[in-house]
Design a protein that fits this description.
This protein has helices spanning 9-13, 24-41, 46-64, 74-78, 95-99, 111-117, 119-153, 175-187, 190-210, 216-233, 249-263, 265-268, 296-299, 303-313, 317-331, 362-374, 384-401, 435-444, 449-454, 460-481, 531-543, 547-563, 589-602; strands at 158-160, 165-167, 213-215, 278-280, 285-287, 294-295, 342-343, 350-351, 402-404, 411-413, 427-429, 491-494, 517-518, 614-616, 622-624. The protein is mainly α. The strands form 6 sheets. It has a 3-stranded antiparallel β-sheet with strand order 3-4-5. The chain has a 3-stranded antiparallel β-sheet with strand order 6-7-8. A hairpin with a 5-residue loop joins β14 (614-616) and β15. Bound molecules: 1-deoxymannojirimycin (DMJ).
Length: 629
């Protein structure tokens, strides 16, 4: 026989209040109200009754009154996590607060007029203006970087900002000009857009016809990708028309075709579907890298660009050649979806067993999901195999490569340098920090998390991947904040049960994670790389969590403090664990093409280059999705 419940239905309706903890005052007033008052009042005098009423009334006011929360300062409203504790209302009651007149409530407004008029609206506006100011600082940084390049290295691939020289590290196509061009367009800096655009129009075609050896991948992602984005943002093929500065869009498209026609020889000269690594531009001949092998990430990270070029030029040859590579890679044996970092264009097979998501492996995984998104993200399309490869690979990452550090449990992605049967290495290149962004993008397909949930579009696996993305983004951020400069090293190792390096630590004893992160002397340089801020940008767009903006701001401030060169430009560093850090005299093209672009977008309006309408190529050049065939 079931026991009687210890409370009546009325108690249930009352939210089981009597089983909750009650203060002395609550117990006293409640017993007055429920027992004594009822029983005694029939016989009490009017005076006693009024006294009881007064006590009851006072107690009621004290119980129901809560003091107003503290005023949210601008900085607190930005949400730095630490300030959250300050916002907790303590509910302490003073006589003064009881006597204080209640605040006047603001007039009720229709929902759409609220954001600019009520108190919350003011806080939001202040937060908005903080980020507008910060975004402006990124724009200033870009102008400073460009001015150094323009003064000392115009037309060279890269600037050496300390010695005031230019250097051609990428084959001599003026890579910084083209990498920076669409960033200038997005930032609305017409002067730089015009300078870069005019240089492209005046010099690039000639350079392409005269220059020697270039790397297929580097030239595709930086130069071809930059030209194609510029074409779209300048309004080509009904593109965004962000600017009227610089040449007409077809100038960019014609040069892109000229370049791609020559790069195609890397595919057509190969005995297999795996392209050769290098091309001599002037005679369109292709050559393998020394040693004969191509990098896995390189051969699989040209398809977004070649597909888009086919779409806007109407010539399918670019897409056909580039997609043959991915079609072929689908057939190759893998380790739970993971692939070795080298592949042979002669045999068409992977070479060696080294598996990692850092250098030579990284953007293979990035383009699996992005090429599928570019083609319209359909599970019925002829690119759906890429989505399956991506899903399988991410399962492999979670099963074989993801571990937690000790003592504080940072989630990281390690390596299998000798394949499945060799040991695990707790080494993580900064390059791996592209992965949080890619995982988040793969989970929601570019929608905000909120919208994806409303659409019921997140599988269990998507949610798991999004969680991993957030954990990894934190680790990437901690790789910055652990060092004395606040800038990440090129490579970090993580302390695990099996792995520790005596005498080496993270580089800044004040960080909570100094014992989790190990930085070896040879890995302490910083090349102004974008991967972490790229992921912060994607995660902010998708989760709308302001902490990602705050983290981006910390990183930007560290770049400003330690890498800015007064005479113009920004420089790579030799050692991020030492203050002041020694400098390397090189501004990589991706600082203008990627790092500053992602920071600018992170601090700005989410409707600019939306993630459900564009994919960013691996060099941060936005390419529209859902291409015309
Ligand atoms: C860039 O050229 C690209 O982001 C590439 O995918 C990796 N290396 C650099 C930036 O670090």
């Amino acid at each position: 026989m079931s026991k009687r419940l210890p409370y009546t239905n009325k108690d249930v309706d009352y939210d089981n209040a009597k089983f909750r903890h009650r203060s002395f005052i609550q117990a006293f007033t409640q017993s007055l109200a429920t027992s004594n008052l009822k029983r005694d009042c029939t016989s009490c005098s009017t005076g006693k009754f009024l006294l009881l009423l007064l006590v009851f009334g006072l107690a009621y006011v004290m119980l129901t009154h809560t003091s107003p929360g503290p005023i949210v300062s601008d900085n607190q409203a930005i949400g730095d996590g630490k300030s959250e504790n300050n916002l907790i209302t303590k509910g302490r009651i003073t006589l003064k607060s009881l006597l204080r007149r209640p605040p006047r409530l603001p007039p009720r407004l229709p929902p759409d007029s609220k954001s600019s008029s009520n108190k919350i609206g003011h806080v939001n506006q202040d937060v908005g203006s903080v980020w507008t100011t910060r975004q402006k600082k990124v724009k200033d940084a870009f102008i400073h970087a460009w001015s150094g390049y323009k003064s000392y290295a115009m037309g060279f691939d890269e600037l050496m900002p300390l010695s005031h020289h230019g250097v051609d590290g990428l084959g001599g196509l003026g890579a910084t000009v083209v990498d920076a061009l669409d960033t200038a367009m997005i930032m609305g800096i017409d002067e730089v857009t015009a300078e870069a655009g005019s240089w492209v129009e005046a010099h690039l075609a000639k350079r392409i016809s005269e220059k020697g050896q270039v790397n297929l991948f580097e030239t595709t992602i930086r130069v071809l990708g930059g030209l194609l984005s510029a074409y779209h943002l300048r309004g080509g093929e009904k593109g965004m028309n962000l600017t009227n500065a610089g040449p007409e869009p077809d100038v960019y498209l014609d040069i892109a075709k000229n370049l791609a026609d020559r790069l195609l020889s890397a595919f057509t000269s190969s005995p297999t579907s795996i392209p050769l690594s290098d091309v001599i531009l002037r005679d369109s001949s292709a050559h393998p890298a020394p040693g004969g092998l191509s990098s896995t990430s390189e051969v699989s990270t040209v398809q977004l660009e070649f597909n888009y070029l086919s779409s806007v030029s109407g010539d399918q040859k670019y897409s056909v050649e580039a997609m043959k590579t991915l079609d072929h890679m689908k057939t190759l044996p893998k380790v739970e979806g993971l692939v070795p970092i080298y592949i042979s264009p002669h045999s068409g097979q992977f070479s060696g067993e080294n598996i990692r998501l850092g250098s030579r492996g990284d953007s293979y995984y990035e383009y699996l999901i992005k090429v599928w998104l570019q083609s319209g993200a359909s599970h019925e399309s002829n690119t759906s195999y890429l989505y399956k490869m991506y899903v399988e690979a991410m399962k492999g990452v979670k099963h074989l490569l993801v571990r937690k550090s000790i003592p504080n449990g940072l989630v990281f992605v390690g390596e299998l340098p000798n394949g499945l049967n060799g040991g695990f290495s707790p080494k993580m290149d900064h390059l791996v920090c592209f992965l949080p962004g890619t995982l988040a993008l793969g989970a929601t397909k570019g929608l905000t998390k909120e919208k994806a949930m409303l659409n019921n579009a997140l599988s269990f696996e998507d949610i798991e991947n999004l969680k991993l993305a957030e954990d990894l983004a934190k680790t990437c951020f901690e790789m910055y904040s652990v060092t004395s400069t606040g800038l990440a090293p090129e490579i970090a190792y993580f302390h695990t049960e099996e792995f520790s390096e005596q005498g080496l630590e993270g580089g800044n004893k004040s960080s909570e994670y100094v014992n989790d992160i190990i930085i070896k002397p040879a890995d302490r340089h910083n090349l102004l790389r974008p991967e972490t801020v790229e992921s912060l940008f994607v995660l902010y767009r998708i989760t709308e969590d302001p902490k990602y903006r705050e983290w981006g701001w910390q990183i930007f401030k560290a770049f400003e403090k330690y890498t800015r060169v007064e005479t113009g430009g920004y420089t790579s560093l030799d050692d991020v664990t030492y203050v002041p850090p020694s400098k390397r005299d090189k501004m990589e093209t991706f600082f203008l093409g990627e790092t500053l672009k992602y920071l600018y977008l992170l601090f700005g309006d989410s409707s600019v280059v939306p993630l459900d309408k564009f994919v960013f190529n691996t060099e941060a050049h936005p390419i529209p999705i859902n291409l015309k065939k």
